[in-house]
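User: Run a structure prediction on this.
Assistant: Running it now.
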Amino acid sequence: MAGRTRGGRSERNEELETVREELREVRRELRETVELMRGQGSRRAGGTQGHEDSGHSHRRSRTERPVMSQMEAMKRFMVVQPPSFNGEPSAEAAEHWLRRMRRILVGLDIPEERRVGLATYMLVDKADFWWESMKRVYDTEVMTWEEFERIFLGKYFGEVAKHAKRMEFEHLIQGTMSVLEYESRFSELSRFALGMISEEGEKARRFQQGLRPAIRNRLVPLAIRDYSELVKRALLVEQDIDETNQIREQKGDRKGKQRMGESSQGPQQRQRTQQFERRPSFYAGGGQIAQGVAANRVCYGCGSGDHLWRACPLRGTQQARPQSQGSSQQQSVVSF
């Protein structure tokens, strides 16, 4: 297993080295071509025809681009690991695949006549079946890249998909997106509705209309008609709102902690207050017992705490305790 891994890496390194060598060869040829063109201006008008023919022959051998074979183009193409396309899941995914494929082919300097074959090599599953059916309708061997793009987009990004994108653009709002996310989506969908935003001012107005009210209300008085300036101001307003909300949250946390501290001390304070209220107190000079002692009242006839003297069963009998002057005074206060 390890030997196979090392062998695979070695083959890939050899392929990369081959590509680098080809690029270095192209650069050398370009430099030599420039030098020849510069020398042509300084060449004397006189000279033998044989020398001129030799010069032209030399230049042709240096400037003519070598024909890239299918195998060489395939090796260069597969080194970058191009993406495949299976015909799903959406029209947007199909367009992204086509745009990425175009960038790869142009970046690798793949000849025009090789591009369609390499791109369709990456079609799999449903997309591959579709392409096989197209081969019975079109001469794909000589098809240009522009024609392939037209056919591909007609299949996977037709008028129905374009209309859906236009409708999405018309109803696009910021919602929970950040300003950067909203601007990115706005720009991506705007190319399907170029007729709606043909002017810079109209584009800015539509972008502003979709912003959250908290941001939009601070931009409307500025009457900005430049799209780039409007986006920049919206970012600044969003940043200011975020900072203000953070400050409010920090203040709210401090107040919450303060209330929690007060509530934790409350029961102790209430306990001390209740203990103070339960203490017996006397009015100065009156000799009357305060209401706080009412919970400790007893019958002064028999000493029971279950009833008062007026309900005592021993009242009027000889077992009743003799009343003293203090008892009569207490009756005037307690037995009411």
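Residues 168-239 form one domain.
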